[in-house]
Design brief:
about 250 residues; alpha/beta; Purple Acid Phosphatase, chain A, domain 2; 5-stranded mixed beta sheet; 7 helices; 13 strands; globular
Length: about 250
Amino acid sequence: MSWRVGIINDLHIPYHSHKAISLALTVFKDAKVNEIILNGDVLDFYTINSHGAKHPDIKETLETELEAGKEFLVKLRKMFPDEKITFLYGNHEFRLDRFVMKECPHFWNILRLENQLGLEKLRINWLPYQEVYSLNKKLKVVHSPPSYGVNGARTSLLKKIDVSYIYGCTHRVQHSCVTGDSGEVYHAWFNGWLGDAASNGNVFSFMKGHESWQSACIIADVIDDYEFHVHQLHLNGNKTSWGENYYDFSK
């Protein structure tokens, strides 16, 4: 029996794109996914980033960021009451772990992100940063790729040719594939992001190339232990299509 998975990443709440997220989740609903994977950087944690305070006009606090993240997860669970939800922590979630361990390690168990977000109550599974999640024996999901270069998907694939991977983190949409000596084809996907650089440019301006990031989501059909089919949907302009349906969330 096949298993259909919807994958999104890099929402960077509270600096997320409401339209892009609504579009992706609507497509997932119509596609009748069995599982949703949040592949890291769902929250931004800008207030405790290692880059330092870049813009004094940023009003969000750690508390407001956590509340915004929790609000999103509650809505996600209401929209998908029976589907499996898996949260793979990204490097931005790791910001909180790093901060707590440095500043207040004795409060580690209290301040852990899964406790702050109430993941157990929401029936959301979670994995630590960079732990690989296997959809089957040939397709895996993990947040950060081996390469962030211009041709990152290709480079990541050549650095790690063992199975196919779906990555987040880079905020770019890429796909590359190679054929091994055995004739097997290996893939690497970069799945873009669902943030909003246009409205929150002062947050992301310290990152080179933020003006040209792209938005996407993935629907993966896992047929059995070895076969899969990955469909990457581009969401730029908050428009996309799936099957016979065309979606326009631009207005």
